Amino acid sequence: MKLNLTHAQLIDIFAPRFVGKPSTALVQEVVYDSRKISRSEGVAFFGLNGPKRSGFDFIQTAYDKGIRIFVLDQQPAEGYPAVCFYIVEDVLEALQKLAAFHRKRINYPILAITGAIGKTTVKEWIYHLLADQLKVQRSPKSYNSQLGVALSLMQLPLEGDLALIEAAVSKPGEMEKLHAMIAPNYVVVTSTNAGLRHEFDTDQAYAQALQALTIDADWCIDGDHLEWPTTENSKDLIEHIPFNDPVRVHNARVAIACALRLGHCDPKAVAELPKLANRLETFEGIHGATLINDAYTLDLLAFEGSLAFLKAVAPGKQQMVCCLLSENQVHLKDEIIRLLLANQIDTFHIWTALPASLPDISDQVVLIKGNQHLLTEALLAKWKRKSHSTVVRYDLSALQHNLREYQQSLAPTTQILAMVKAQAYGGGLVEIAKQLLAGGVNYFGVAYADEGVLLRQAGIKLPILVMNAEPAGFESCIAYQLEPAIYSPAHLDAFIRTLIAAQIQDYPIHLKFDTGMHRLGFLPEQTDQTLQTLRAQPEVCVKSIYSHMACADEPQHPMNAQQISSFSAICSHFESALPYPFLKHLLNSEGAAHFPQAQFDMVRLGIGLFGVNHDPQFEHKLKPVLSWTSQISQLKQLKKGACVGYGCSEILEADSQIAVIPVGYADGFKRNLSNGNGGVYIDGNFCPTIGRVCMDMIMVLAPHARPDAEVEIIGSQQTLSLFAEKAQTIPYEILTSISPRVQRTYVND
User: Fold this and answer.
1) What is the domain extent for residue 665?
2) What percent of the chain has pLDDT over 70?
3) Which of 454, 548, 626, 657 is the most buried if burial means most Cβ atoms within 10 Å?
4) Residue 419 burial by CB count (10 A; 0-12/13-18/19+): exposed, middle or buried?
5) Which neighbouring-strand residues pair with 746?
6) DSSP conformational letter for 260
7) Phi and psi for 592 in degrees, rounded to 5?
8) Which residue, 688, 679, 670, 662, is CA-closest to 715?
9) Is residue 262 assigned to a domain?
10) Longest dimension (CA), the chain
11) Phi then psi for 747, rounded to 5 degrees?
12) Same structural domain for residues 72 and 173?
């Protein structure tokens, strides 16, 4: 969609302070990410600020790519000739005003979809049910934020029959802004009681915020109190829903009720409701390839996001895009080719059907694009590396969300060190680190030097702190510019000797002090001795001083105040003695949530990035990153009195159906979850273990299970924390003990 806005219209929309000579070119599109600039003529760059970065920092990059129209919150220094600057108080607010202006030009109704869960699924299912009757536009993927809604609206053409726009809020006051932009004719509220209320004090406050979207709407469907239509075939439609689990059944009912308000609903279309892959999903492919599946939509705005993700995943590797077009999408081919060329994709293929001979994908990163689900699944079946049917998925968009939540809770000057030790808590060292790098972390922390070496070999240039820098790894630290944590006089002496042999001076080190946990670390009384060594040895310089809190997850514990006080005293001593500044850091994920007064210069985030925090109020703001699923290998009908598993530790008390599932203690499903102590969810039903957990399998009581049903081990129904509690351990152990043989996939909104 081209906006075609004149200079006079922009002045009227923004009421900015204008600097420069008015452009005679029409503004046809906007861009807010300098990495996504594929052309410059008629493009305006909006310098949006992030939690830890300023949009102002990317002016030069945008200028170098040919952009000459900027919307900023401050005027840059001279040095940008022939540039138009629109200076506004709030760049995001200006973008939202532009979206509201465009909304007023649209001559067809908009259906807004909001709720705690299910927004994207309900939106796509409404589209599926109505696409054959109406010319329906929709927001790409889950573009439902303050920024995403604005971008979605500006993509809408002026002519059509209906638009579907998602809307999500995380704090008070946001929905009013979304309502001003969308001005919806109709509203669907999928659910208000999923416990995801973000920064709202109560569930009621969250529900009331969602209701703000319904003001002036012609009608609203409330998913929590769904009034089922009384049409002639409405009962038949329910019977055609192709799912059994309660969440998808609920979402399907909401989508059908909405479709019946706007048109008719074909039972065949209900029966074919797709099982949506709502996000970019990354798999290991054959011949060393990496596959990114985005078989979801062909919205060009979403396509740009998919290409940006491809670029982030594939530094130094050949990039391929395979795009599958349906007959009614062929007209997009030229625009898609332009987009691919602008993004300098090495190889691309645009098909309407799979060719008899597929291209070679050895050692490439391949993006599979299109919404012909049968074709894309067939392509994945040929290219995907066959592995264990038990899969652990990491939601990279949730990881980014959690990082932003911590960033917003910290002082603007506080840096973030992301802990990625133990394969990033089992999530994949390089994959997780790249996402956190894109999110704006300042440092990485690893346990051992070889983990830091892998990050360097993957092209990561951020400083890396090695927590357990053993003498055997000192040479690797030096060779790969890793920064060791030094924790004792003997350890410091050993590293200095290594530097002397290598004739190196001013090498950065981090001093770890033991302020009460009594693990690794200098004792406070060794401060003067350590300073004497530092003054006498030019081989090292102190990059940071840090310690670790023993009881950060218990904010009221007296040890916390003692450690903060001790650490502050140690740092003050070093500050008065060293002639240069250094970083100070004490808090981990739990501490960062509970002790804002002790942020010092940096915090170390680990498990909090995966959505776990002991404070329920803070954890409400976070999203779970990990889900763990499997499949049913076999369903068995057993008679009363039959024994199940090793040692016949359980005898059936009645005729029962059991499901055998290919996951066991070798995969990380703890053996102490045997005999009903643990279980899984199948089609929304909890199915307890029966008998002992085996090395490679478990058996569960599953009276209602279907052979093709998905098995949830960890997910929305059985959270990571709940699973860990049943296993009598902590989430850390569960995360890090999922076996490498379990296939890892990565999904990203």
Assistant:
1) 626-748
2) 95
3) 626
4) buried
5) 282, 394
6) H
7) -60, -30
8) 679
9) yes
10) 90
11) -115, 150
12) no
Q: Which two tokens stand for residue 87?
A: 């200076």
Domain assignment of residue 125, yes or no: yes
Instruction: Please give the Cα distance from 114 to 144 (Å, whole number).
Output: 9
The answer to whether residue 569 scores a pLDDT higher than 60 is: yes
Listed in sequence order, the residues at least 6 apart from 586 whose beta carbon sits closer than 8 Å to its beta carbon are 515, 546, 547, 548, 549, 563, 564, 567, 598, 600
Number of domains forming the structure of the chain: 5
The one-letter amino acid code at 296 reads: Y
| Dihedral in degrees, nearest 10, Cα atoms 198, 204, 205, 206 | 40
Q: Euclidean distance between the first and final Cα of the chain, in Å? A: 22
Arithmetic mean of pLDDT, 692-721: 94
In a domain, 391, yes or no: no
- Look up residue 113 and give its two tokens: 């979809």
111 and 254 both lie in a single domain: yes
Residue 301 pLDDT grade (very low, low, confident, very high; cuts 50, 70, 90): low
Q: Does the residue 528 lie in any domain?
A: yes
Q: Are the C-beta atoms of residues 167 and 122 closer than 8 Å to each other?
A: no
Of 118, 137, 140, the closest CA to residue 297 belongs to 140
- State the residue for tokens 């001593």: 573
Residue range 440-482, pLDDT digits in tens: 899 999 999 999 999 999 899 999 999 999 999 999 999 999 9
Task: Please report, as a single letter, which amino acid is at residue 223.
Answer: G
Are the C-beta atoms of 308 and 300 separated by less than 8 Å? no
For residue 659, give both structure tokens. 């499901």
pLDDT exceeds cutoff 90 at 393: yes
Q: Is the CA virtual torsion 304, 308, 310, 311 positive or negative?
A: positive
Cα separation values, 483 from 85, 254, 465, 472, 536, Å: 43, 54, 5, 14, 20
C-beta separation of 639 from 649 below 8 A: no
Whether pLDDT at 197 is above 60 = no
Region 306-322 average pLDDT: 83
Map residue 32 onto helix, strand or coil.
Answer: coil
In sequence order, what are the residues at sequence separation of 6 or more whose Cβ sits closer than 8 angstroms to the Cβ of residue 644? 638, 650, 652, 658, 690, 691, 699
Look at residue 177 and tell me whether its pLDDT is greater than 70: yes
CA distance 296 to 278: 7
Closest by CA to 713, choosing from 735, 741, 691, 740, is 735
Active site residues: 421, 646
Taking the CA of residue 399 as centre, how many other CA atoms within 13 Å lie in the half-sphere pointing to its CB?
31
166 & 244 share domain: yes
**748 sits in which H/E element:** strand 743-748
Show the tokens assigned to 227.
């009034």
Separation CA 79–CA 76 (nearest Å): 9
